[in-house]
Write a structure and sequence with these properties.
single chain, mainly beta, four-stranded antiparallel sheet
């Protein structure tokens, strides 16, 4: 999954139904950030958060940086990603799902 993110605007990413079963409750994978216009961080979680208080991946401008993650899915089977930066900045985010966890 690849998405362009705009600073402080949570972006929904549907996970289930794309090779991941509908009863999945979490995923594991690799998150990569590239083409960022400014340094800072990415937050990934099951809820849309415009101004998160924690981050999933920190980076400096010009780096192509990756990080492993395990994240819960929303009730609809998706996640939200937020680029934590100053207004007007953008970045490209790539998520490679490597596994999933099923609910009871």
């Amino acid at each position: 999954v690849s998405s362009k993110l705009v600073a402080n605007s949570p972006r929904a990413v549907q996970i289930t139904g794309r090779g991941i079963p509908s009863d999945a409750v979490a995923i594991s994978g690799n998150l990569t950030v590239t083409n960022e216009t400014s340094s800072w961080a990415i937050f990934v979680g099951p809820d849309a958060v415009a101004y998160p208080t924690s981050s999933t991946l920190n980076f400096v401008k010009g780096d192509v940086k990756a990080n492993g993650l395990t994240v819960s899915l929303s009730g609809g089977g998706g996640i939200y990603a937020t680029y934590m930066s100053n207004r007007g900045n953008t970045t490209q985010l790539v998520l490679d799902v490597t596994g999933y966890f099923r609910g009871p």
